[in-house]
Amino acid sequence: MLDHIIKFSIKNKIVIGIMTLLLIIWGAWSATKLPIDAVPDITNNQVQIFTSCPTLAGQEVEQLVTFPIEQNIATVPKIEEIRSISRFGLSVITVVFDDDVDIYFARQLIGERLKEAVDQIPQGIGKPELAPVSTGLGEVYQYIIHPKKGSEQKYNTKDLRTMQDWIVARQLYGTPGIAEVNSFGGELKQYEVAVDPNRLKAMNITIPEIFTALEKNNQNTGGAYIDKKPNAYFIRGIGLATSLEDVRNIAIRKSGSIPIYVKDVADVRFGHAVRYGALTYNGEVDAVGGVVMMLKGENSNEVVNRVKEKLPTIQKSLPDDVVIEPYLDRTDLVGRAISTVEKNLIEGALIVIFVLVLFLGNLRAGLIVASAIPLALLFALGLMNVFGVSANLMSLGAIDFGLIVDGAVIVVEATLHHLGLRKSTEKLTQAEMDHEVFESASKIRTSAAFGEIIILIVYIPILTLVGVEGKMFRPMAQTVGFAIFGALILSLTYIPMMCALFLPKKHSDKQTFSDRMIAGLQHIYDPLLQKAIRFKYLIVSLTVAIFALSAFFFKNMGGEFIPQLQEGDYAFHCILPQGSSLSQSIETSMQASRIIKEFDEVKMVVGKTGAAEVPTDPMPPEATDIMVVLKPQKEWKSGRSYEELGAAILEKLEVIPGVFFEKNQPIQMRFNELMTGIRQDVAVKIFGENIDSLAAYANVVAAQIQSVQGATSPQVERVSGLPQINIVYDRTRIANYGLTIQDVNDVVSTAFAGRSTGQIYENERRFDLVVRLDTTHRNSIDDVRNLMIPTDTGTQIPLSQVAAIDYKLGPAQISREAGKRRIVIGFNVAGRDVQTVVKDIQQQLAANVKLPAGYYFTYGGQFENLQKASSRLLIAVPVSLLLIFMLLYFTFHSFKQATLIFTAIPMSAIGGVFALMLRGMPFSISAGIGFIALFGVAVLNGIVLIGTFNQLKKEGVDDIFQRVKEGTLTRLRPVLMTATVASLGFLPMAISTSAGAEVQKPLATVVIGGLVTATFLTLFVLPLLYIIFNSKWNMKRSSGANTFVKVLVFLFMTLGSQVFGQERISVTEAVETALKSNRQFQINQAEIAGAGFNVKTATEIPKTGIFAENEDYRPTDKAGLLKIGITQSIAWPGLYAARKEYFKQQLKYANLNTDVLKTAITKDVRTAYFQLWYLQDRQKLYMELDSIYTAMFKATELRFRTGDVAALDKIAAEAKLKELQAQLVQNKKDIVIQQQQLMMLLDRNEWMLPLDRSLEKIVVNTSSSEELTHPLLVLQQQNVNIASSNISVQKNTNKPEFSGRFFSQRVWGAKDPLSGFSVSASFPVFSLGAYKSKVKAANAEMEVQQRKLEYDTQVFQTNKGNALAEIDKNSALLQFYESSGLKQADAIIKAASLGYRTGEINFAELSQFLSQAIGIRQNYLEVLNQYNQSAIQYNYFNNK
User: Fold this and answer.
1) Across 1076-1080, average pLDDT
2) 1022-1043: per-residue pLDDT in tens?
3) Distance from C-alpha of 152 to C-alpha of 154, rounded to nearest angstrom
4) Are 1276 and 1345 within 8 A, CB to CB?
5) Model-level pTM greater than 0.70?
6) Gap between the Cα atoms of 1314 and 236, Å rounded
7) In a designed cystine with 790, which of 206, 241, 635, 1248 is the match (CB 3.0 to 4.6 A)?
8) How far is 50 from 127, CA to CA, in rounded Å?
9) How far apart are CA 912 and CA 1013, in angstroms?
10) DSSP code for 131
């Protein structure tokens, strides 16, 4: 079929020309229609439900609002996740649907359930509303409204907010593609009735009375019409208040004959709603702004352009000195990202064209191939438009023209090669040229087509991705697929037609630069290949070893989801301590903004504090997002990089005390939060019931995360610590005053939060009319206590009469997920990849944090996405590799050749892994897609080469070496050209630093690195494998094969050292090793050394004293007589001798302890060794029985099938086999435990086994021979000696001590100095009793040691006798087993097995006989083991 297509194309050149022209027109038209964005919109399918309830605290919001809504929507079909947050005054529930659910249908389902939920929410608390239909990329345009310089005092924030709501937002609302214009900052204007409680009290007016009066005195009505011919007069009652004056003059009630007006008890003025958020601009003003939210699925570029078109008109409708200034404009990022793509594509295309011309050596041929590039791209753009794929960094980022033109390169190169083989120098006619082109193209067409198809197949796994990773990467696979599909069609139609038409028809013998270059390369390559053939086995085995090494590195490389895209702007998340007021937050964020604005690179700083009225981003008042808009990088003068600037800003912000700052980027932050409910890359979630417990565990987990390298400072979700003024009602007192809790609650919420009694209309604009206390009377807890409550008797009492009012800390926010409470510890990853950081954290938490029952951890954020993507790719990649293999098999009809080409896949991965390592990049999904593209190219080269070898075989080249030589030299040009074109096509991406390059770099790095090794593989390893696969193996003659086997054996030896390295040793060797190596001997040697040094301290003489003394010092003689001398004291000489003897006895004790250790360790080693030997024999017995029972089971199964035995026999046989197999497993574990015991005693880190023969009986000599004293008793005798020498020490301390001194002094007037000495002796006069008691205590200690020696000797003799008795007992049994028992057991097994097989006995009888025989053998082993253990004990007591 392919031949027919090629033939048709060459014959019908005009048809192909017209179709090419149509392709250009279609592609160009599609390009204008494509939606353009920076990155694909990866937001999941979600519906948000907001409920604003300004009078409720977090606990009540959860109980009364969040929980009922969650319960009602839980059963909606196709929901993936439900999560919610409840905080003071606000409930936000996010419902995530499956991606295939239509968002409007999802909203309809939720809307229906909300109607049911509203009935369960108490009246007047709040009404749930659905958020606008937008996405994470929805905030396409953000602006602020501010007065020009000089007019700042002219407009307050209330005026600016009114302009935003009623002028700007209203005009933007009609713009196609806009879901919502969210106003932010400023003060929402209200008509405020500010009540003065003192005036209320004086006039005995209550707040409910004011509320009712305002409600009833602010309405219009109609009375139909009066028909008065010829006219009809419509009746209209006008009672709406339209100004502050109207409100002031509303009467509350009459006091006697005088009405009391609102103005008598309250101040009526313009106020503002309670603020939950604010906006600041450059740290200078409290500004007003708006966020334009784009409708899901719209084209952001077009929407922003429509908004920009409307702005001049809107600007005209604002006062002249007020301006709208944008601070985040999506088109900037889109422009930067698309320009990156354009730059990379153009540079890539130019490099590809240059390489093509260089390699083909023919300008026309190069241009023919190059012309396929724009055509394939136009074809891709056309199909992108058909399938609705947007043009962005991801979809266009992976297009490599080198890959696309591979098919065209193969066809053109083959045609040139074919024409070059013609010897004729005459010019060809067009018909001859057509024929020649057809000949060459049809020969190579399968390679070209299959190569393109294989590259298409390798992209299939990416199309299987769903969720976030699917939205991110499927456009890329689709676009590349479209381009390659277009290139495939072009290589079979357009390329052959252009070759026939434009390639030179006259053969020229003149060598081009390209020919000379290829000839030079062939000259280098040929001898290298010949050398490689000589060492083929060595080269192949080394390649396998390097692949194993790269696989090991890859395993330990770590991974991340997607490298972070540089958006070109920063978003700093600033968090103050829990419970900070909005005004404090604004002040801090303005201070931070001013610090950031000092940087020269910063264009503008906008701070968003708290939440807007439509809380799409529900932040608490203590949190601020500071958007830092940067100038274009070319205007930066400091020379800092984007990362360095972020770090410098963070460093500067550290001067603000007590504030937590976190660096992020606007879109990334919004994505992370919308997708997973958190702003950071990774989150550890703890689920449980109690908020306080969750908070405590969260702090423990945060401390663990802090210690892991690569994790930024963790941010614990603030769930508690919100300062509250709690009003706890006293029900008895409330009842006494005739009140209800609702009455009191209404007064409290009206007084402090304010309640709307209706609206005041200013033409189209409408503003709430609100009643609340005057600001001066709602400042402290005393104002709450003194709030007057009306009773049923008409009197008013303060609130403190019926309630206890106190400060208390309460929950700040209650987060729920999947119907359970949870807390999140979020952190970003810096300097490491996500996967290894999370792995480290999981290990830390498993080791150090134990959660109670009902509490558990999960992980979210980027890590969650990486896990999902990896698990899906683990299925999809093998499937696509299998498809490639099948395709190769169908191409070559040879399993051998398909395997041969398939080796290209693992080998090409080597370069990709090492390239990532060289550049210090972790594995990411981007890199994974690079590997997928790489496999396609590697296989393509293999197909071309093997195809050529097969063609030469067909042509009669039978010598395999000749075939390889000719084929490789012929295909050197296309192989090098394909690899160079594909890798250099990616070069601009690999070295790009502009916007969005981070996502493309890993992909390009993998392809370039992989193609280096893939080319080496194609040119060297593949021909060698072809020779190995196709030659008869003769191991004797082939020294290379021996080398190959040796290398592989070495590899397996190193890998399997632990598996095969179990050494067998005898019991004598084991004892000798232990006596040399056991650690207890090292301790004993240290003790001996210590005792030796103690002996040298026995003759210690007290220190010598030197003195200076002045005597005869009196008032008349101030000089006195100076005397200088030395003093020395010395103990009774006998004490030194006694002490020395005492220390010598202790030294002897340490030396004797060596013998005790030797006997003990010898016993322990023998015990462990013979126990292990016993277990080894038991293992052999079980193995033997396993084969018997397996045979019996098979026989039973056969007889059961033939109907000879009942099912019970089969079940019994199977149960017996299973039981035995379980015993086998248990015995293996016992062996391991015993081996570890032996390793510890021998101090060797190797697995050891006893000799490989049956368990032997230890020979015991029980005849009474000359008894040696056991080291243990000798040691105890030494204790007696030590106690005895201690008596001598104590007696000598009771003897006198001596001291003496010598001195010299000079007397005035005397010629010679006067010298002298004194000697003194000290006697124990007063402490004689104490000394005597010490001697008695030493005598008592000696008595103790003597008695202990006698007792130890008695116990020793008893144990020795017991051991001998055990030996005698077990000897009798052993004699029975050895003489007749074992032989009888063997006879029973043989006879019973034979009887069962012949059908003489049934399975029950067989089982009985076998049990008896097996019991004998097991008992024999058991008794032999007991005998040996008794013998070891007996020998120990005999010191043998």
Assistant:
1) 82
2) 888 888 877 644 333 344 444 4
3) 6
4) yes
5) no
6) 138
7) 206
8) 8
9) 8
10) P
